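To assess whether ligand presence alters the predicted conformation, the chain was also submitted together with uridine-5'-diphosphate-glucuronic acid. Input:
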Amino acid sequence: MKIAVVGVGYVGLVASACFAKLRHEVIGVDSDESKIKKLSRNIMPIYEPGLEELVKDGKKHGRLRFTADLSEAVKRSDVIFICVNTPPKRNGGADLSSIERVCAAVAGAMTSYKLIVGKSTVPVKTGEWVRKTIKKFCKPGIEFDVASNPEFLREGTAIQDFLKPDRIVIGVDSEKAKKILLELYKDLEVPKVITDVNTSEMIKHAANSFLAMKISYINALANICEKAGADVNRIAEGMGYDKRIMRSFLNAGPGYGGFCFPKDVLAFIHIAGELGYDFHLLKSVDKINREQKRHVFDIVKKQLKGLKGKKLGVLGIAFKPNTDDIRFSPAVEIIEMFKKAGASVSAFDPEAMENAKETLKGVKLCRDKYSVCKGADALVILTDWEEFKAIDLKRVEKLLKHPVIIDARNLFDPEKMKARGFIYKSIGRS
Ligand code: UGA
């Protein structure tokens, strides 16, 4: 099948490479010419395990190419996936201006039937609005369908999530669109949930917000655990064996971050409000998440009896491991709080250093995990990279000024850390 993927950001680039892997002919389109040039030289604009190999493989087999020429890509394709960003607006709603621009350009280039599919996370009813926009800008008499096919991939495991998903959600309003999308995914033998477009759009918001709710729930429990002298990890384990609950997304920490959960929760609250429902449950999820970052900051401040003039070593800048993405990263927010409180900060992240250079002004960016420890009053762990779990604690102890570790990701066993002579504070464990 011939596919155009418009917007080769996270979702679009992974989708392009994976559709090529599924033996479709794919053209990835982006208005950012420098990105297209880089991709033509096999330079990935993002860090994602396995992506470079997959892009190279798609190109080698002649099934994948990239262009900035949207019109040509539309003419050569039967299905057009819209994967452009939907950043948050000031009022929490999603900014759909990129989608509008793309729809107008796609419509202007259409000379025969096309299936236009929304893959970006969008407010319910966006499909209806896309249909109206395409109709307004396309030549009279040209037929088209609009569908929704939300993407559930996670950064860091994106390829695996795309090629072996838990389910595929297809929102269609015509038999023709349904047939095309089922054909497109015929090699993936997973449950396929077929709905109308509005329901499909809402499934994506519902899933992301539910996962965010799990995280805020466990973080709220962690706060109670700290007061009661209980262990939140064991509670998550005890709850997680219940198949109705499950263990995943019950890791207490500094709160959820990234370009999806924070903005999607706010967008869902906003849409619900516009539709006449006050989503107070999600408002609490968001509030708990914001407070959690302050909570981590307060633990460090209390432990060091104030932060003015203190030297902090920080491990982790990305919003989670296996990515270089620092957008809405709890680590970035907490580091900013440390700086504001008068501490000097040295930080290290295995992949996010390049992105951190632009964002974290006034922070000393170190070349490895041990350099941040040198002479620090405390070591603060903010992202759960595997390589931090394997850190040589003897070396750390020698390098630190005081043997204090505040671990916002619960990487170590408190008893063992105490036995090693560390003053060790984590989240939700006394
Ligand atoms: C999330 C969803 O998991 C994907 O299904 C979805 O497709 C994607 O958003 C999207 O909408 O595009 P992602 O943002 O890559 O994926 O990251 P997650 O793995 O979900 O983690 C989000 C945040 O929650 C991270 O900051 C992570 O550290 C935090 N988290 C996660 C916790 O604090 N505790 C947990 O138990 C799990």
